[in-house]
Design a protein that fits this description.
Helix content: 40-55%
Number of helices: 14
Strand order of the largest sheet: 1-5-2-3-4-6
Strand content: 15-25%
Oligomer: single chain
Length: 360
Amino acid sequence: MAILEGDLASVSVEEILELFFVSAKPATLYLFSDEKEGMVCCANGGVVWAKVRGYGEAFGGLLLKAGLITEDVLARALNDQQTRFGDKKLGEILVLAGAITPDDVKRTLINQVTSAVYELIVWEEGSFRVEEGLPVIPAFLDPPLDGITVLMESAHRSGEQTTLHLEFPDMEAVPRLVSAQPTDEFTLAADEWRILTLINGKRSLREIITLSHLGNFEALEVLHNLHKSGMFTLHSRVKNEPGTILVFDSDEDSRSLIEHVLLKKSKSVYQARSLEEAEKLVVRNQISIILLDPMMVSDLKSAISTFRSRVKPLRVYITVISEKDSVTERLRARLSGADLSISKPISLEQDVNKILSLLG
């Protein structure tokens, strides 16, 4: 039951969390802004959980970014979760398989929660709701993230992030290396080299950040330093770039895995978590291929027809990704207007090559 509701125009997220930290009692803050929703769970003077729908990486995606597992390992773990260990969390399955350690799980959870908190704390528009107690969550941080540390780091990041976004207002811009730049005259840190190797004249800033294995804020800082040093120039992305793909899937880890594989193949990838968001992305970015989970729409045939009408006279190829592997399900997808139908879990090489072959 809500004990307080209001508008973020009248009170900041930071002020609400500060009250939570002072009281130390269990409470949950729900936030709503445009198409995004988030929540921050607090207890004992700190943050025990945070989540943003429509932002950030799923747990499996964070493990990929950190270089702790490969795409094949994640694909096998997701398959095991669906077929053998439906009651176990992804982290538990990976620990049982010997792919990661319990400490890796804990560090990744902290990273996941921290990223969500720092995204939510700077929201200035939307509404909020405060409820006593904590919801049912698979895992809470114990001990919690210290409240004072969260507020101090938030203040620092808020100022820095404003500067960074002024420098990079368009995250779809494509950086291109300055060929005459004498890189041997510079002493570059490991993270700077990592970012440089991802700049190929095709990937956008957003895609480079995704592949960098760094957090959004940290990657932006590195990009700022490289840009300031004259290592690259920025160019607007050409609309309707061949191979632009939209992943519209109900499973966060599946979305992250598909995006990671496609980005490595130098494809432009967007993720959608709602039908409204998917339709907007299709119109704005003139998507070439849509990977569509039928569980995300109420009427598959109607959704496919709507997507096609949004991009006329351009051609959009639609691949249905279904939980069920049956002739009936594949036939249903084709009769609904899909160009291709595959089942989960996706075979990284075979199925991805099938999807990309639609482009000719």
